[in-house]
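User: Um, what's this?
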Amino acid sequence: MTWLVTGGAGYIGSHVVSALRGAGMQAVVIDSLSSGHREFVPDDVPFVHGTILDSELVARTMLDHGVTGVIHLAGFKYAGVSVQEPLLTYQQNVTGTAELLKAMELAEVGHLVFSSSAATYGTPTGNIVTEDTPTQPESPYGESKLIGEWLIRDQGRARGLKHTSLRYFNVVGSGSPELYDTSPHNLFPIVLRALTAGKTPRINGTDYNTADGTCVRDYVHVADLATSHVAAARALAAGRPLERVYNLGSGDGLSVRQIMTAMAKVTGIDFEPEIGPRRAGDPDRIVADGTLAARDLDWKMRHSVEDMVASAYEAQKRAAAARI
């Protein structure tokens, strides 16, 4: 089978392409390069510069390359920014997904793995999020991802589309030094950029009801995440039944203080984080239970926190050297 990876030039998408190739599967990439990087796509992987909002282009790409399934990662992914840019968020994530589904129907492509988000849960009442936890998104980003799931579900009912959606929290690390997180909003690149610039990273709040007083979240390695996207694709292709949604979570999480300690250890840069006030609305602890994904999608946490930091640091250093 040949899989179209939307957003395949991005941080997560490029790792999914790499995992597909490692599994002996063919990949085709479509990406607008609004946040992706052309150099993240191998030269021997077909690349189409375009947007999923152009359903005719997407359908033509599928037909031209014999695509039989889609792994859908393209979208506007900044939850905080989405509050200021709701129309852009809905256009990219809701309209974009609808246009992709239209293209898939035109090209008679019947398998879809959707990169959703744990932002669909909002702030849950419990500390462990399962697939049965009520969805109560609190940002246009989370809402748009949930609507995307609904669109896909309804197209499955109407047209027999085989699909699953994967929800996860914070994606970190690197599976290859050539591929790295360039987000201006994610914790790992923020801390690493601060340290290499001689600045002191900051912790927002140390009075949470956790073991060390800092909030606890899920952090999952991008290569582990990519492995499960490919496992989902293979399961759909083989006709194996999958759940409608899966959480890709650690089950226990890491505190911000643990992340900072690992950063100092791995980088060799000794520092004491600045302490700022806690942010309004930040819960003490939210982690996801990955039991179902472990059962069906080869999901497991294969990397320690030190592995996560070391791989991210190596990729960042390589990128910085290339810019000199």
